[in-house]
């Protein structure tokens, strides 16, 4: 027996009514980061397979690491997916594949021919698609033959306002079939509430021959507003971003000195050079070098994985910590990115909402940020969503924490703007929730769901709910083992790799190694081991 959360059970009930049959009618689940969109999707896929309504599952997601995470999660449901697959058709003893949007778009012409009505497509973080963009167009072509599109997103909108394929819109607003908001998740104790602490004060910078001084409450032109924000996130002004970092570190130190000894902090920097400067400042503040992860670092994913389970206090990143990065111990953040779109802001907030089993319900996370208009507006949107959840409605509901609406909301340009930051003296403004919200109600009792006990028709995989090793990992290890044994045998008897592979394929009934089942790969290893043993005996005898 395993359990589903209440909202997951409700989603599964609606999915069973939908099941993708009939005219094309994609199904959108919009659920907060960390709420658990993966689980009901996989349970539903397993039910369709067992009922013979589909023949295979395809999970499409933004990054290669996510394809492996989906394969691991699927294995726990008795589903076996080949991650980062190059073909839409899975290996014979697999239920499907997990691939990236980029690969689906690049292979759309070939996959269009391989896709059948018996395919369930699960599109994770579907906001990465756009009707007029390459990924969206490629996705639509590759999977146009099936009516079953299950779309998942925590933020079902795009900063460029492009439509997401398969999403229904009313008055330009996405209409999910199942919605489970961040406020719902906080109320149920599934997500942490996040307290926002904006910083404002005196900022000055040189603009040509002039020196301009302003706070974030002052109205400026787009160019000077951008320079003001760049001044606020400059690491060179000790009473600017370094002060924000010091305040955030004090908060983190307090948490780590209490009952959350491995609590972690994350700084979202503007670019690689900025991240390194931020890391230097953090080293000066804490006496320890933080972990830094950048796109151009080949070890970045390994660093993320190590930080997730370590007790290191701080990590600095640019765009690496987004969807699919699950670090529940993150409790404190500093937003110092040049990107100020609502999509990116929500994704950053999503890094701090994941709960840890066994920890108290309602414990908060804290996000420190410059008091720039667009960021204040995004934080205000989150606060509005949570207002009636975390405090009773009353006469003060109209008094928003961020009661000065921004005069202009614009996306920060990525190119460097020529200016010289001169001075910064900022301090924290009123903190959302007054430094920590009251605890939400305890989460509802999970709904028991029995695991299926039969495999998909024609499948050779076992239905163990938690296999020791996912099938895709075992298959990869067997292929590597076969390759090594072929090399050893070639060195022993002088035959070429091609000759030995052809002989092994005949012995095991394999046409191509890429198409071999796990059972055939296991047999291949046995055949090669016996051949090596015979050769070794002959050598000893001679």
UniProtKB/TrEMBL annotation:
Residues 391-413 are annotated as: Disordered. Residues 18-174 form the Helicase ATP-binding domain. InterPro entries: Helicase/UvrB_N (IPR006935), Helicase_ATP-bd (IPR014001), Helicase_Restrict-Modif_Enz (IPR050742), P-loop_NTPase (IPR027417). Keywords: ATP-binding, Helicase, Hydrolase, Nucleotide-binding. One of its GO terms (molecular function) is helicase activity. The keyword Kinase does not apply. Pfam families: ResIII. PANTHER family: HELICASE ATP-BINDING DOMAIN-CONTAINING PROTEIN, TYPE I RESTRICTION ENZYME ECOKI R PROTEIN. This is DEAD/DEAH box helicase family protein. It comes from Svornostia abyssi.
């Amino acid at each position: 027996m395993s359990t589903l959360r209440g909202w997951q059970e409700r989603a599964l009930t609606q999915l069973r009514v939908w099941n993708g049959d009939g005219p094309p009618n994609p199904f959108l689940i919009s659920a907060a980061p960390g709420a658990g969109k993966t689980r009901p999707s996989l349970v539903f896929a397993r039910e369709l397979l067992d009922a013979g309504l589909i023949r295979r599952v395809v999970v499409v997601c933004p990054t290669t690491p996510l394809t492996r995470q989906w394969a691991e999660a699927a294995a726990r449901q008795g589903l076996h997916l080949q991650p980062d697959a190059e073909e839409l058709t899975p290996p014979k003893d697999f239920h499907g594949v997990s691939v990236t949007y980029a690969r689906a778009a690049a292979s759309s012409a070939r996959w269009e021919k391989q896709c059948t009505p018996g395919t369930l497509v699960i599109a994770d973080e579907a906001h990465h698609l756009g009707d007029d963009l390459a990924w969206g167009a490629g996705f639509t072509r590759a999977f146009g033959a099936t009516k079953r599109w299950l779309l998942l997103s925590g933020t079902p909108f795009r900063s460029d306002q492009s439509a997401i394929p398969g999403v229904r819109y009313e008055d330009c607003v996405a209409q999910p079939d199942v919605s489970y908001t961040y406020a719902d998740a906080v109320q149920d104790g599934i997500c942490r509430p996040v307290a926002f602490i904006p910083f404002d004060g005196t900022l000055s910078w040189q603009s040509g021959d002039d020196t301009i001084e302003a706070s974030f409450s002052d109205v400026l032109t787009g160019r000077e507003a951008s320079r003001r924000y760049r001044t606020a996130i400059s690491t060179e002004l000790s009473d600017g971003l370094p002060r924000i970092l010091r305040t955030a570190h004090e908060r983190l130190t307090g948490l780590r000195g209490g009952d959350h000894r491995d609590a972690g902090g994350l700084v979202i920097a503007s670019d690689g050079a900025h991240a390194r400067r931020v890391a230097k400042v953090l080293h000066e503040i804490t006496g320890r070098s933080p972990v830094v992860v950048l796109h151009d670092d080949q070890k970045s994913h390994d660093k993320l994985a190590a930080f997730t389970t370590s007790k290191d206090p701080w990590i600095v990143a640019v765009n690496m910590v987004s969807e699919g990065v699950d670090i529940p111990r993150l409790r404190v953040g500093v937003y110092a990115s040049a990107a100020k779109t609502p999509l990116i802001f929500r994704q950053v907030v999503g890094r701090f909402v994941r709960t840890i089993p066994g920890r108290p319900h309602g414990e908060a996370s804290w996000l420190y940020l410059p008091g720039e208009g667009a960021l204040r507006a995004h934080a205000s949107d989150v606060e509005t969503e949570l207002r009636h959840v975390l405090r009773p409605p009353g006469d003060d509901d109209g008094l928003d924490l961020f009661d000065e609406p921004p005069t202009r909301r614009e996306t920060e340009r990525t190119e460097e703007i020529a200016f010289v930051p001169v001075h910064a003296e900022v301090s924290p403004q009123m903190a959302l929730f007054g430094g920590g919200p009251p605890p939400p109600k305890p989460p509802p009792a999970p709904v028991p769901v029995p695991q299926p006990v039969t495999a998909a028709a024609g499948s050779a995989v076992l239905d163990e709910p938690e296999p020791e090793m996912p099938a895709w990992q075992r298959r990869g290890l067997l292929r590597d083992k076969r390759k090594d044994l072929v090399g050893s045998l070639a060195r022993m008897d002088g035959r070429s790799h091609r000759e030995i592979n052809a002989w092994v394929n005949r012995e095991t009934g394999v046409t191509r190694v890429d198409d071999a089942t796990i059972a055939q790969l296991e047999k291949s290893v046995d055949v090669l081991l016996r051949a090596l043993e015979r050769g070794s005996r002959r050598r000893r005898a001679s």
